[in-house]
Amino acid sequence: MIDTSIQVKTDQFDGPLGLLLLLIQKEDMDIRDLDIGPLSEQYLDYLEGMKRLDFDIAGDYLYLLSMLLFLKSQSALNEESPMDLPEGLDVSLGITSKADLIQRLEELAKFQSLGDKLWELPKLNHTIFTKPKVNKKAIIDSILTPLELDELTGSMMDLIKRNNREFTIIEGDKVSLIGKLEDLKPLLSKGAKVYFDVLLKTGKDPACPINMVVTFICVLELARLKKIQIFQNEPKAPIYVEVVESLEGIEEFFTEGEKRAKEMIHLLAEEPKTMQ
Fold this sequence. Notes:
Layout: H1 15-26, H2 36-52, H3 59-73, H4 98-120, H5 136-143, E1 145-146, H6 149-163, H7 177-184, E2 193-195, H8 196-200, H9 209-224, E3 228-232, E4 239-243, H10 255-269
């Protein structure tokens, strides 16, 4: 059989003694000078209200009610005299006399007062809310997709055209892919995430298309050697470069890239017109 008894607990009182103390405080009574008559009637009214709500009244409440009724009927007895309670009644509250009742009520009132004072004290970090840690890598990985070579090339050409300025072609032998790598290294430490546009702005003349071409080829070489990964969210959106391995000692693998850079610069040098 399911036990339907409940432990009544509200914002105003917790348990039978809490209810009784609440009634005493409402009547502005002195705990040591209790008027048992009105208290027992109000206590009984509360229990009747619980019954109307279909609550099975817990034994402690019934015990305290019985004690109040006995005190009311035997008010002439000395407060130290134990009560003659009916057999079989739960005495788990440990209250058998008016003196016991007064002592328990005083203890409860004291703890309530201490609890109120404790609650009013400043609470360390009670009103401080910290921002949860955000996994930036997970966010980037969820929205960015690897960039194919033709897409990266298209983006590169768009950047050169947007530059829209006359430029002086630099002699091919003055352009060094290794030199560009040295320009980029401070920005490309392992684990770094950098905008491709930021990489294009490195060097002595960042706006020069030749500088852009060399930077572009340098980035391609690093991607080919699996030192970096290149991402873009959508066409025309910013391009991200993520460094997955250290670039230390990478220079010796740049021979082929150096050749491609000089070939592209040579092609640009043969076109004597302003880049549009």
